[in-house]
Amino acid sequence: MGLVGVAVVSLAAAAGAARVPPQHHVKRQVAELRESYDFVIAGGGTAGLTVADRLSAAFPSKNVLVIEYGDIHAAPGLFDPPTNWIEPHPDEAPRWTLLALPSPDMGNARASVQAGQTVGGSSAVNGQFFDRGAKQDYDAWHELGGLEALLSPNKWNWNGIFPYFKKSVTFTEPSPSVAARYGYTWSTSAYGGTGPIWSTYAPFQWADQKILTQAWHDLGVPDVRECAGGRKEGVCWVPASQHPVTGERSHSGVGHYADAQPRANYDLLVRHQVVRVAYGAGGPLGGGAPRVEVRSLDGDGGGLFNVTVRGEVILSAGALHTPTILQRSGIGPAAFLAGRGVPVVVDLPGVGSNLQDHSGPPVTWNYTAPYAPGAWPLPSEVGRNATFKAEATAAFAATPAAGPYTLGGGNSAVYASLPRAAGRAAAARIARKIRKQVLDGSARTFLPADLRGVPAVVAGYKAQLLVLARALEDAGSPSVETPWATAEGPVTAWSFLLRPLSRGTVRLDPADPLAPPVLDYRAGANPVDMDLHRAHLRFVRQLVATPTLQQFGAAELAPGAAVAGDDEALAAYIRDKSFLSFMHPCGTAAMMPRSLGGVVGYDLKVHGTKGLRVADASIMPLEPAAHLSATTYAIGEKAADIIIAEWKKKKGW
């Protein structure tokens, strides 16, 4: 089973005895809090703890509070020594599991989405695949902003965010012997930071890892020496977010909380939900700072409590929960809020809109000839060979950690552009279809029904489509991803749609506004997504016929030649077999001009408010061609620098 086959079937499958971070300055009741705080951060996840760490260090005389729904837990790595490869470890950190509404255009399939419900957020439960997007991804964010982005001193293009990728992480090179054994390549120019999050390459790969690499070479896909430096089209080595010596998962709950403590001005309130941000008589544009209403999840009197804020509030609850905090605060689509009895404070129709995620179907095959003669070890050894398993467990516990359990979520992926996957002519045809939607006005019909008549949202979607059309024609801009760790049969090779055109929503639950949000993924709502899925799937299918795989008798199981050769049959297969979420939701509080349905500006301040910002994956206006962890850390780092610079200019601060 390939990397994603393992990761999706058991995203919870993890782990050995990961350490529980120490609980410095942890508060469990509102009564334990200070009278007021200079900065309050809603959400102790990937970006939230990054911001808290940097602000508390920059302003030692100012108090910082993080409010986290979850608690402090151990965070085992994805493949730390488990009982077996598919059963969850009893010490794994809890997570949200949200089931979206049916997507009619994908056969009423429902996306199942997970996110961390613990200190460290999703960085404590993800697959540890620590890649960055391509240069084109972040340049597209800047392009969407037009004149507003151009005039802002805060640049979110590649040149503007790349220093924060470097700042956020400490990359450790593999030893020369390990690098030679597996063929690892990297460029130190992509790193050079000394951030508290660790990344490295595993000192181990399964014996068959190189087989799929060679199969991609058979198809003419080149190696990229370093995929974290902006160029990403080709076969990539991807580091994992793990410590280079212990092999433990590296996440924000350790790097930006435990390792930053004890720090006298940095408090963490766990097991509390941020209900809303409220303003005084002056309203959201008045002179006073907002206050934060919270409720305890463990009793604590059973009511709502106010946290007084002297400076500002930073929402960092993630793409699935930041929008609902805003909506409960009266900041969001006016018609929706009024219909739920929420007084409208700021009409921002983009709040909870623009939901995007990676999705896609698999290609599967078996081997009919003896597989990888002499190749050893393979993952099956862990389940059938007690001696091997014991040795692997002992190797992981050694110093430095070694062996199979250091592999995390794997280190290998292919990122291919649409011109490579489908040919330049086909890529141009698909781009023309997208531009036609903008020109003939049909684009708005693919939006949620309640947003089709909102001019700003429609204008923003059209702007996104034009940017995406250009990206899909770019031979250097990835359109599909296939990650893997092993190809032991039956093989599952997924095709990630990296640039989805369909848009969904995150909304308050009308039955209970404090309950988890209602997700409507609307996967496949834009029909061009199906064109992209077909092109990607047909590209990945070519692996089976490569000389490398044919020497082992590779025989396709699905979709098969007959299905793949017929557009309608292939569409039916895609609707039936696709995962609608690879756990990369973003875009629901997008960083775009208000005139384009944006929620935050380039200083991350929520449009129409003072003293309120957002810093998490929800601000990404377009999904990058990457798993989201590294980008979310960079957002946290850049957000902290923006906030620090602004507050240092204030008199009396």
Q: Characterize the biggest β-sheet.
A: 8 strands, mixed
Distance N to C terminus:
56 Å
| Extended strand count | 23
Shape: globular
The helix content, as a percent range, equals 25-40%
| Structural class designation | alpha/beta
Strand content: 15-25%
Low-pLDDT stretches: 1-17
Radius of gyration: 24 Å
Alpha plus pi helix count: 20
- Quote the average pLDDT: 92
Which tags fit this structure?
FAD/NAD-bd_sf, signal, single chain, eight-stranded mixed beta sheet, 23 strands, GMC_OxRtase_C
Can you characterise this structure?
It is a single chain. The chain is α/β, with parallel strands linked by helices. 30% of the residues lie in helices and 17% in strands. It is built from 20 helices and 23 strands. The strands form seven sheets. Strands 1, 2, 3, 9, 10, 11, 12 and 23 form an eight-stranded mixed beta sheet that branches. Strands 8-16-17-19 form a four-stranded antiparallel beta sheet. The chain has a three-stranded antiparallel beta sheet with strand order 18-15-22. Strand 6, helix 6 and strand 7 form a beta-alpha-beta unit. Helix 3 packs antiparallel against helix 15. The N and C termini lie far apart (56 Å).
